[in-house]
Design brief:
The protein is 57% helix and 4% strand. By secondary structure, the protein is mainly alpha-helical. A two-stranded parallel ribbon has the order 1-2.
Length: 107
Amino acid sequence: MKIGMRSPSLSRSFKARTTGKYKRRAKRAINPLYGKKGVGFAKNPGKSIKSAVYHRTTFGVGDVVKMTSSSSKRTSSSVLRFIVFLSPSNSLTSSKLSGPMFAMTSP
């Protein structure tokens, strides 16, 4: 399983941003389960679990940009996990971090 930065793809990024709301409305009208939480796990549990692990252990260019920008209040948890994983002696204290993933990576 991949850990770290996802390789950027301009074509996928463009496709994700240009999928229109009318296309989503049509899919939702045809399939009542389209866009609902948990349906992916019901349809294909293995793929759903692998996807969840992948998205928690990797980060993209956008996550890094959001984290470094001063105007952003929220930081991506996957980027924070990776930073804590790489350097557990950084300036982030355990009081700022929560969750089982952070508890496992602290020294």
